Amino acid sequence: MNFGYLLKESYRGLASAKLSTIASILTISLSLIMLAVFYNISLNSSKLIESIKNRVEIEIFLQDNFSQENLDQLRDILKRTGGVKKIEYISKEDAAKIFEKEFGKEMLDVFERNPLPPSMKVYLFDDYKTTSRIEKLISDVSESPIVSDIVYPKQNLEVIEQNTTGIYYLNLIILILISIASIFLVSNTIRLVINSKERLIEIYKLLGATRNFIRAPFIFEGLVQGFIGGIIAVVLLYLFYIYFASNYLSEIFSLTFNDGIFMVVLVVIGLLLGTIGSTFSVRKFLKEKISIGT
Amino acid sequence: MIRFDKVSFSYNSKKILDNVDLYINNDEFLFVVGESGIGKTTLFKLMYFEEIPTSGTVFFENFSSDNIDVQEIPYLRRRIGVVFQDFKLMQDRDTFDNISLPLEIIGDKKDTIKKKVFDAASRVGLLDKLNKKPFDLSGGEQQRIAIARAIVNKPEVVIADEPTGNLDPIISMDILKLLNEINRRGTAVIIATHNFELVRKLRDKRIVQVKDQKLYEVKIRT
Questions:
Q1: pLDDT in tens, A4-48
Q2: CATH 3.40.50.300 fits B1-79+192-222, yes or no
Q3: Which residue of B has its CA nearest to A203?
């Protein structure tokens, strides 16, 4: 097929069913906006989980008197346990300084001597921030005679652990549902356009057109509709970001609506939606209608 | 070129053709006559494989209804020019685009298409109507578009189903002369008609009558 003919046919197709074409373009835009909004919700929920996880640190409070050897032994135990990113030793004096900074000097003046114990802050690699691993670390560390207490945000971590998988699957299921609904919506709207051309397809077949010849203009039309639908979605989301989100939402949520790559990806998904939608819709008409005598 | 071998065809348990044989030569001019609804169109549909026999085999050159692959059907149809009873013209495009359709389908180049369309249009006398759409033209002119579209790709056979069905006698005769001319240039022509008067005017042609689900060779008495 000549490319010129493909363009001409596609243009003719789009122009001859203006209302249905507009309907399918808007359906594609709507589907993309749904996907984009959901993607951002999902992204922000992951970020929230991430930020809670980032704050997970273990504080090991130590006895007041210990030797350097005791301290080195404790460090060795921590290193052996694995997953330790950084160990920060806070002496009694450092603890007092931190306390002063946060609560003021007066609070400490009440005491005759510094009541704050020395401690160690242990930062773990992300993979090791699980209750089971931390509990293992605690049981190892407890062997050291200089450890008096160990504290970490156990409850927060448990809430995340119990819900992360659920949130992940929920996100995945919603994403799949939105994608299927989008393809279904788009292919149904495009089918309206193709339905009106059933006779045309019939003539093509009788004149010896192959499936690809018949299919090509419809798929190209889907591609064009997907592209326009994608551009509309990107523009609307960008306007939303500029005039609304950046003023009211940006501090709580971070949105990707102004991100160049995100915009390109959204247009590409639009192209795919249009193409897949029209491929599905035209398939029904491509079957060779041969009546076999009964 | 076209051969029916003991072909029967029933539709919804109604027998339309029963055990018929037919052989059509390369340069033949054949009338298929019979009353309306007797099975002439079915006979044609069997030729371009829109219908497949209930039993028996239809052959077109190397293609056989027994084992043809659906993917091959387009290639068979490109070798047959069909003038449909209802013309099957595309109403949203002009004469040129209607005639050029079979050439676009086979992927001819723009210049070749132009040349072939002008040639076909001149043979049917439509050169001055190339930019008109079907609804701006008379029934006879629309029939000519259908004929030009059928011959533009130089098929081996032209099948015309009731080509004079809705036309007045003078225009009908013109169309018939046109098809006769196409045949004289070496293309087989098969015409289905219920109009015996028309057939009498070209009395030297072979005539096959569809009657009681059978085919009969008919001779016109002089």
A1: 888 888 888 788 778 888 888 998 999 899 889 888 888 888 888
A2: yes
A3: B88
Which of B70, B92, B105 lies at the smallest CB-CB distance from A209? B105
Rounded distance, CA B47 to CA B53, Å?
A: 10
Domains of chain A (ranges; CATH) run 3-52+162-289 (no CATH), 56-152 (3.30.70.3040)
Q: A233: which residues sit within 8 A by CB, 6+ positions away?
A: A28, A29, A30, A32, A33, A36, A266, A270
Kindly state the tokens that stand for B4: 């029916």
CB spacing of A204 vs B82 below 8 angstroms: no
In Å, how far from its chain's centre is CA B103? 18
Instruction: Compare all CA atoms of chain A with the CA of B152 and give the residue at the minimum distance.
Output: A207
From chain A, the residues in CB contact with B149 under 8 A are 207
Domain boundaries, chain B: 1-79+192-222
Residues of A in contact with B8 (CB under 8 A): 293
DSSP 8-class letter at A293:
P
Q: Between the ranges A237-251, A263-277, B167-181, B189-203, where is the mean pLDDT highest?
A: A263-277
B56 interaction partners in chain A (CB closer than 8 Å): none
